[in-house]
Each structure stands twice: as structure tokens, then as C-alpha cells.
Amino acid sequence: MDPIVEVVALFLGFLGWVMVGVALPNRYWKTSTVDGNVITTSTIYENLWMSCATDSTGVHNCREFPSLLALNGYIQASRALMITSVVMGAFGLVAALVGVQCSKAAGDNYVLKGRIAGAAGVLFVLQGLCTMVAVSWYAFNITQEFFDPFFPGTKYEIGEGLYIGWCSAMLAIAGGACLMCSCRMGSQEKYPLPHQSRGTVYSGPARTRSVAASTYGRNAYV
């Protein structure tokens, strides 16, 4: 395993985990501006947990969604995927801290450390995929309602929370891929397959007999 690649992968995974923690409670997953006069102009924005509104006078009101079962299916699925992403990222960080070479947690057993680091890379990739699916699914429903001419409700646009989620997913996937590739390259470099020539013996007396037999073959005797 390359220590530099491991450190970079750990940093990317940590940054992706922090950003998914920032994107999850962010209020601006989708926004909509209702234009009117100076008094009635307001901004409505929602996330996975609540709906908020603010007007030009600075009045700010938020209302949490009253029932989980009354929500749309994609919001429930996005909640589950984002929470799963946070949990997988936490386990991935712990495994990466144990599996990197500069850590003393697993001692000098580099085979075990490499396997733990590889598992951390898989967890990072799963974290990124869960985040990517959640924010992309949410954004798909926003765009579908926005371009639907027969949609009767308020039309929203993509908010900053989704962009943070996309960046988090890309960082987590990149960190996990680097960590898995580093572990694979390290195992191939440190544990090459032995190449033995035919008829070669490595023990002391046997090697002497082999050399003697090659020196004094059947043609040497008269």
C-alpha cells in the first residue's frame, strides 16, 4: 500500500463524510420565489425535514412535515439513503484509521491492515453511491414537476443542498476508489509469486547434490 495514496484517500473520505453531514440538515434542497410587490415577495424552500418561507420584510417561518407516511415516496427514500450514507461513512472512517500504514492500531500485521483499508474503501464507495442516488432522485422529481405544464402546485428549483450532496458523493467515491486501488497495488508489489526454475532445490545439501549432478553428468564417466 502506498502511504501517500492512503492519506489522500482518507482525507477525501473524511471531507465527503463532513459534506454529507452538512447537506443532510441543509434547508435549501429546493427553492421557489413567488414574485409580487415589495411586500408580498417571498421565498419558499424545503428539504427532507421541513418547509420554510421568508418574505422581503425578514419574517421567517418553518414548518416540519407532520407525518412520515404522508410524505412522497422519494422523500422517504432520500431520508433513508442519506442516513445510511452518514452511518457508512462513519464506519469507513474508523476502518480507514485502523487500516492505514501510519496507524498502530493493528500492529505490524500488514495483511490485516490492508484488508481493513480495503473494507474502508468499499464503505466510502457505498457512502458516495447512497448520497448520489438520494440527491439525484430528489433533483429528478424537482425537474419533472418544474417542466410539467399541468403540475398544479408550486414549482421549485434545485437548491444548494443538492449541490453539496453531489460534491460529497464524488469525494467519497474518489476516496474509496483510491483506497481500494492502493491496497490492491500494495498486495501485488509486496507479495509477488515465486518463480522457481525447473529442478532447482533451495536446501543446502540438496543444492550441492544438484550442482554436482549437473557438473558430473553421465557423459563425464568413461
From TrEMBL:
- Membrane topology, as annotated: Multi-pass membrane protein
Concerning Pfam families, the annotation shows: PMP22_Claudin
Q: Name one GO molecular function term.
A: structural molecule activity
Alphabetically list the UniProt keywords: Cell junction, Cell membrane, Membrane, Tight junction, Transmembrane, Transmembrane helix
Offer one example of a GO biological process linked to this entry. Answer: tube formation
User: Which cellular component terms (GO) are annotated to the entry?
Assistant: bicellular tight junction; plasma membrane
> Gene3D superfamilies, from UniProt?
1.20.140.150
Record's subcellular location: Cell junction, Tight junction; Cell membrane
Identify the InterPro entries for this entry.
Claudin, Claudin_CS, PMP22/EMP/MP20/Claudin
Which ranges does the record mark as transmembrane? 7-24, 80-100, 121-140, 160-181
Instruction: Write out the similarity annotation.
Output: Belongs to the claudin family.
Q: What function does this protein fulfil? A: Claudins function as major constituents of the tight junction complexes that regulate the permeability of epithelia.
Name under which the protein is recorded:
Claudin
**What is the organism of origin for this protein?**
Hippocampus comes
